Give the backbone structure.
Amino acid sequence: MSKREYDESDVRIRPGRRGSRPRTKQRPDHADAEGAMVTLVDRGRWTCAPDGDSTRPPVTAMRARELGRTPIVVGDRVGLVGDLTGDPDTLARIVRVDPRATVLRRTAEDDDPYERVVVANAEQLVIVTAVADPVPRTGFVDRCLVAAYAGGLSPVLCLTKADLADAEPFAATYRELDFPVVVTRRDQPPTELAALLAGKVSALVGHSGVGKSTLVNALLPGVDRAVGVVSAVGKGRHTTVAALALPLPRTADGSDGWVVDTPGVRSFGLAHVTADDVPAAFEDLAAAIEDCPRGCGHLGPPADPECALDARVEQGLLRPARLAALRRVLVALR
């Protein structure tokens, strides 16, 4: 009996439980992905404006598996692949999230370590406050200003319901900080505010009941955002339940503007902000705080007796009223 010769056909390889395809960490680079801006987040689905163009049909997308649990919020610039027609029952994939230029963050409370990103890549933060019904609160405005400066956004203070009370006393509190203060009335169109928002991405933030949704309806007739009433104890009810980016009319040069209507908030925690973040947003103060001792809160005596900002005032390089306005905002961090 001759000896049998074996070849590769006699060898059997049992495939593993996960198949025989070798694993790889290489992922496609999706160089052909089309850029888009996220306009709405709803239960694992993201509505996107392709190329940030408000005239194109919105596209519904899901997060690609390779992104894992990467957070994606309204305003994020993302890369899309798949069906981008925007037709009903179609679904694209988000395969890339671009670095954020600005971020509006908040925590539920000052001792809450978990940061919540409200809006990404907004150029302006419009702080909406009613001058009456409910009464205005400087504490909330100050906290929003801190969050804006820390996140790289330019603040705009919008005082609503000026037909019910004089807005100037409250507006004068913030004149020294050199940012726009706009006053609106319910019986007049918000022309000045519309001019500030044109061609930019702006986020609206404020307490419930101050008139954010009413303001959006005035800026964008036909949108019909739900509005509510203020209760007898001076608190509004939530009518906006999720952040939503709405397109503004195009400017003469073809620039797209967006306004992000955010849910009303009861509090605005600042656990993620340091005392240096606020003055660093001002050109005339950023260099001055470099001479402050380590750990300086920039509040002046008695808390910070060696703060360099006081020396600037003595030298005539900083207006006392401007420093007082800055320190009132910084108190929100304590």
User: Anything to note?
Assistant: Residues 175 and 209 are 25 Å apart (CA to CA). The longest helix spans residues 138-151. Confidence is low (pLDDT under 50) at residues 228-239.
